[in-house]
Write a structure and sequence with these properties.
With 270 residues, the protein is of the alpha/beta class. It is built from 10 helices and 14 strands.
Length: 270
């Protein structure tokens, strides 16, 4: 029996688990290895898709299934199987057509487990794919990539994405959630699907009591899980994330997740 038996820690990846150079530092890796060796259940709760997380997966010491695509997809790497998927439903094709017509130069990504297709490719798409080391297909028409999709991702300069959100939310917000996972990344998923829902689904599957669930994140797509559970935000995170979290820890370049584990050691270690 370890001191962390029955404790689940779910962390955002970019800007929380990783530092600003997209590195998993030795202190963070060692802290998580210690956490899992003493019974802790560690996982990621990330906006990255199955494909976008693939390059990073071997270096992350997971001891629980991963929450991917902002809570829409849960995959058990140890068992090699999908546990949960929330596919886009409702008028998602009409919403995409409307948004593309209004913003014809907007970069758009269609995401499934194991596949990413890009419509209207721009330089922000290229930067995003390089950052997550992800292979993709460039297509000219969404009919070339049959739905449903796990999520849509609009990729452009921040000013343009603020306009997209201002246009899309009043028209389509009753059906879909629109939220920023980065300054140049605007996510679209089914209403009610977010990282909080993914953490809740995983906790039920394991099962883990809510009082023993902890989350960590730094950006807009983390707010739901930061508010729903006792949580940590790195000092380098957004003002909203810091305000939503239960605890603010050192920034991602100062080993944020090592500090989160140290907090839990004090709590559970007596």
């Amino acid at each position: 029996m370890g001191i962390f038996d029955g404790v689940l820690l779910a962390a955002d990846v970019d800007g929380t688990l990783l530092n600003s150079r997209s590195e998993l530092t030795a202190p963070v890796r060692d802290a998580l290895a210690s956490f899992t060796a003493r019974g802790g259940l560690f996982t990621v709760a990330t906006g990255r898709s199955f494909t976008g997380f693939a390059a990073l997966r071997p270096s992350v010491p997971l001891s629980a299934p991963a929450i991917l695509s902002n809570g829409a997809y849960i995959y058990d790497y140890a068992a090699g199987r999908e546990l949960h998927a929330e596919w886009l439903s409702g008028p998602f094709e009409a919403a995409l057509a409307d948004i593309r017509a209004r913003f014809p130069r907007l970069g758009t990504e269609l995401h499934w487990p194991g596949r990413v297709c890009i419509l209207d490719r721009n330089r922000w798409n290229d930067a995003h794919m390089r950052a997550v080391q992800c292979e993709f297909e460039e297509i000219g028409d969404p009919r070339q990539a049959p739905p449903p999709w796990l999520k849509l991702l609009f990729v452009d300069e921040p000013e343009t994405l603020l306009e997209v959100a201002g246009y899309a939310i009043p028209r389509w917000g009753q059906h879909f959630s629109f939220f920023f996972s980065g300054k140049c990344l605007l996510e679209m998923q089914n209403a009610g699907i977010d990282k909080s829902a993914g953490v809740s689904a995983l906790a039920d599957l394991l099962p883990v009591a809510k009082k023993n669930v902890y989350t960590a994140g730094d950006a807009g797509n983390d707010l739901g899980m930061l508010r729903a559970y006792e949580s940590f935000a790195p000092a380098s995170g957004t003002e909203e994330a810091r305000a939503a979290a239960s605890h603010v820890v050192p920034g991602c370049d100062e080993d944020a997740m090592a500090a989160a584990v140290a907090f839990l050691e004090k709590r559970y270690g007596g």
